Amino acid sequence: MKKTLSIVAGLTIAASSAAAQTTIVYGSGSQYVNVGALNANDPGCNANVGWCARNVRDGGGAGVTTTYDRDGNGSIQFSLPGSGDPKADFEYLITGANSSFTPFLLSSLETFGFDWYRNSTSTNPAGQHPVMRLLIDYDGAVGGNTGYLIYEGAYNGVSSAPTDVWTSVDVTGSTTLWATNAGVGLCQDIAQMNTFADWKSGSKSCLGSAVTSGAVVYGLSVGVGSGWNGAFDGAVDNIRFKTSGMNEATVFNFEVRGATVPEPASAALLLAGFAGLAAVGRRRTV
């Protein structure tokens, strides 16, 4: 049975017994790999909705497999070769007509998080692990500035990522996030970083563009690479979020349909941190 760490902004948290709705997302059991130098999406992606491998390049790979089972038989596996500038994301856009969710105000988001795994065979810098991002529209207006708010352990006290162990992270108000402004650039200098609470306040900006009180979240993203040096192999599972308008959190659990289910995890493991929400919630499939 795999071990689990549970952290909030680098700190251990207590077990949670809050309810959650778990959505099972079934994958093919294999990764989408793009050897080309330009970002590409899995051809099976719906252009406007659903979890899918996106922004994959230079030999990077992403897909739901059984290599790193987590709370079931699968997880999103990421792999990067040790050369070039590989990258791979797995994203859920919630703007499509077929989406079961609608965009929501950033200010209404209470917390979000994910479980990640770094294999010890990885040769990229020790502090790097899969990151989680919120796709946002800065002012909520159609055609406005867009970008990401990004959780990365390196800016929250994780100088050396644990290996061969599942780590559970939940973002709270004091967690540091950096930002991008699509078409403009990156706000990742320490002076341009802000806490989650500050970004939600409507008083912060990225390269001169304000993240207003009307900022809207329209997607979720996890990924690896882009400027990493060295090979990486690992995984993500139990992606989750909760807004003030939700009675219970939503947890996305990634599985491979028909694959053998491994030995069940212990109740204590399932209740570790916010990830424990997946153990007690209702489950549906997409």
Question: In terms of topology, how is this protein built?
Answer:
Blueprint: E1 4-8, E2 11-12, E3 20-27, E4 32-34, E5 50-57, E6 60-65, E7 75-80, E8 87-93, E9 104-105, E10 109-118, E11 131-137, E12 146-151, E13 166-171, E14 176-181, E15 185-187, E16 194-195, H1 196-200, E17 204-206, E18 209-211, E19 216-225, E20 232-243, E21 249-256, H2 267-270, H3 277-280, E22 282-285
Parallel strand pairs: 1-13, 3-21, 3-22
Antiparallel strand pairs: 1-2, 4-6, 5-8, 6-7, 7-20, 8-19, 9-19, 10-13, 10-20, 11-12, 11-19, 12-14, 14-15, 14-16, 17-18, 20-21
Count up the helices. 3
Series of secondary-structure elements, N-terminal to C-terminal: EEEEEEEEEEEEEEEEHEEEEEHHE
Instruction: State the shape.
Output: globular
Domain tally: 1
List the keywords.
single chain; 44% strand; 11-stranded mixed β-sheet; 286 residues; globular; 9-stranded antiparallel β-sheet; mainly beta; 5% helix
Structure notes:
The chain has 286 residues and is mainly β. It has three helices and 22 strands. It has helices spanning 196-200, 267-270, 277-280, and strands at residues 4-8, 11-12, 20-27, 32-34, 50-57, 60-65, 75-80, 87-93, 104-105, 109-118, 131-137, 146-151, 166-171, 176-181, 185-187, 194-195, 204-206, 209-211, 216-225, 232-243, 249-256, 282-285. Strands 1, 2, 3, 4, 6, 7, 10, 13, 20, 21 and 22 form an eleven-stranded mixed β-sheet that branches. Strands 5, 8, 9, 11, 12, 14, 15, 16 and 19 form a nine-stranded antiparallel β-sheet that branches. Strands 17-18 form a two-stranded antiparallel ribbon. It is globular, with a radius of gyration of 18 Å. The relative contact order is 0.28. The model is unreliable at 1-18 and 264-281 (pLDDT under 50).
